[in-house]
């Protein structure tokens, strides 16, 4: 292939890709929506194929159960399908009890996010946390308000909540006509059409083109009562709502909002089609060599997640790599930049809805799974030619803390080895108390403690004892060395160090944190490592 043809092909492949993650609180309908998207894309044929994580709700201490769940999440970590000329990659963001730093890190591999909200519940806790991570990256966020077939909250209240709680402005792409049992469908503002929710089981979707919302046909469909309400709402949106602004959508300042019902497939296809039009193709990534454009011919990528093998007899792991530029080909040699060695990518895997497949070639925006005999760390960069190193992945502030000790002191060496490796994998964060060097683990999800305990036993032969601590927040302390004094952080707080010897303060409450911030005006308390 000539250079020009290769470049053209590369650009086409990049242009057609959309890589996104769905952010939501458990039960909002993420599994259902994912499944419907895969059905539209023809990636699965039957509903019920995508396994939810229902079981993990009960599997707090039963490792086999956790393992099974982790197994499922290996195969569904990335789901790929084609739709009308696009190649779509959905990144799975574990929720429920397997919510962990992995969930946050996965978001760094996405170019946009779909925020799924239950219309009866509004913005919930987990959504808020995930939203903040997306916000910091400035990626576009698309909102799907789900379960319109049930009694939900007033749509204006929901939009108000997006603005008040999350600080993002919104533009409703469509607007519900009635709700709950009286849900008639939606009015599509851009296409000026009514999409009807009808048929005996509401599975039939009919589209009626109209001249505008004043059209008599809308009145007929909505019925007098709902029509009056609809007109009032739409007029209010036209007058007082934000205008649609593509640049703001791309900048993550304005979220297009879609109303629908995932379980009834209602509004999902319209959502998908609009999303594909408005969401960005793979974007340039920052690196040691400046911004790396996806259409750059040289292959590069970074590892954002490492998953331990389900089978404890094998220590091998799978490292998930996001391709940032160039074409990936099976068997190619690339530089492992941190280690400074060339490695051959021989058995790369791609994750489809149900199976793992060996991947022959892949392009920017795609995620591939690399067999990892223990050579990769979270954030490692691989590149072809040159030493491209992508910006370090952020460390997320842990919220749960446990003091950890080894039961048998003679096993200290294995203990240290296990802790080091699991820290590299990003399974846990480790802190040490100043002076006594006691070890404290920090995580964002309870399951991370259980995984740590189990893997220390199964893979390193070490029994550990975890003792939960009352701390809820960790803040990295930036202050002149001579001013740092552990004595200042004795009440409801504690001064510790992270693995790079940065000072970190753990706080029991927001109040304790605020008062420390007030009492130390020259210090900075950062949410992530400096
Ligand atoms: P999650 O992955 O976000 O946790 O949510 P999931 O898709 O498992 O959906 C949670 C529950 O919400 C499921 O019901 C699902 O059927 C229901 N659901 C999803 N979309 C809609 C919708 O548009 N309308 C209504 N009314 N319900 C919806 P479940 O009873 O917990 O499970 P199941 O027995 O139905 O599978």
From TrEMBL:
InterPro entries according to UniProt: EF-G-like_DII (IPR053905), EFG_III/V (IPR035647), G_TR_CS (IPR031157), P-loop_NTPase (IPR027417), PrfC (IPR004548), RF3_C (IPR032090), RF3_dom_3_sf (IPR038467), RF3_GTP-bd (IPR041732)
GO cellular component, one term: cytosol
Domain of life: Bacteria
Pfam families: EF-G_D2, GTP_EFTU, RF3_C
This protein's record includes keyword Protein biosynthesis: yes
GO molecular function: GTP binding; GTPase activity; translation release factor activity, codon nonspecific; translation release factor activity, codon specific
Compartments in which it is found: Cytoplasm
Main location: cytoplasm
The Tr-type G domain, residue ranges: 15-283
UniProtKB keywords: Cytoplasm, GTP-binding, Nucleotide-binding, Protein biosynthesis
Keyword presence, Protein biosynthesis: yes
GO process annotations (BP): regulation of translational termination
Residues engaged in binding GTP: 24-31, 92-96, 146-149
Family to which the UniProt record says this protein belongs: Belongs to the TRAFAC class translation factor GTPase superfamily. Classic translation factor GTPase family. PrfC subfamily.
General function of this protein: Increases the formation of ribosomal termination complexes and stimulates activities of RF-1 and RF-2. It binds guanine nucleotides and has strong preference for UGA stop codons. It may interact directly with the ribosome. The stimulation of RF-1 and RF-2 is significantly reduced by GTP and GDP, but not by GMP.
Record's protein name: Peptide chain release factor 3
Gene name of this polypeptide: prfC
